Amino acid sequence: MEQADKKPDSGGTTHFGYKDVAVEDKTGMVRGVFESVAGKYDLMNDLMSFGVHRLWKRHFIAISNIHPGQRVLDLAGGTGDIAALMCKRVGSSGSVVLSDINEAMLAVGRQRMEDQGLAGNIEYSLANAEKLPFADAEFDAVTIAFGLRNVTDQPAALREMLRVLKPGGRAMILEFSKVEFEGLKKIYDGYSFGILPKLGKLVADDEASYRYLAESIRKHPGQDELADMMVDAGFTKVTYRNLTGGVVAIHSGHHA
């Protein structure tokens, strides 16, 4: 099984999909992808997953143990699906920070939150997950959904997630992972590389970005490797559970 690059060498190369690119170039290239797809991002998510991504996200938050009064951070929060669910959980006595490195995605997220009437307990932050502009031990929980695989230095992002967590706080990661069953894997690969880019061209007029997204999933660490990375970053009680045969996985870790 092909392993993802754990930590890119400074001044060296890392992966952008199946391409090797300079480390210093990847963040800008990923930003370009999401600037291109921001306007059609939610529609494409529904089409790509047949709406199942909404079930994954609801389950992700349902098992998060986030409760009223807490302050929580959603990294790479994009168009706000996860933040909207968390706003309802933390209530008026709590707060949610919706953060993304991409200004176009964050703007779409802000508009969606306003359209849903979610304003009193939501804040916005244009931030890089590798170097967060928050104090130590500021949050009760940190989440990242379908965003970690696009981070250039994933170990740095994991360490930052731990740093901003309060002792006893929990980090949760929802991400595409390694499919468990060979039969499902063949179907999934055929769909990802045969249909998904064409769907991206038809709906978003952007075949290349959706080919990158399919490739980025294959380059992301598998379930056990990501769990080991979380342990290396300092998390305790690290666990994961597969959803839909390992198409996605939920990883969880605590700040001791």
Which strand order spans the largest sheet, edge to edge or round the barrel?
5-4-3-6-7-9-8
Output the CATH topology.
Answer: Rossmann fold
**Oligomer class:** single chain
- Any low-confidence stretches, pLDDT <50, length ≥5? 1-6
Mean pLDDT: 88
**DSSP strand count:** 9
CATH evolutionary superfamily: Vaccinia Virus protein VP39
Characterize the main sheet: 7 strands, mixed
Tell me what portion of residues adopts beta-strand conformation: 15-25%
Number of structural domains: 1
Report Rg.
17 Å
What's the helix-strand series?
Answer: EEHHHEHEHEEHEHHHEE
Examine the secondary-structure arrangement and name the CATH architecture: 3-Layer(aba) Sandwich
**SS field, number of helical segments:** 9
Shape: globular
Compute the separation of the termini in Å. Answer: 32 Å
How much helicity do the residues have?
40-55%
Structural class: alpha/beta
Return the CATH class: Alpha Beta
List the helices and strands and how they pair.
Elements lengths: L12 E4 L2 E4 H15 L3 H9 L2 H11 L8 E5 L5 H10 L4 E6 L2 H13 L6 E5 L12 E7 L8 H11 E12 L5 H23 L2 H13 L3 H11 L2 E8 L4 E7 L2
Parallel strand pairs: 3-4, 3-6, 4-5, 6-7
Antiparallel strand pairs: 1-2, 7-9, 8-9
Helix pairs in contact: 2-7, 3-4, 6-9, 7-8
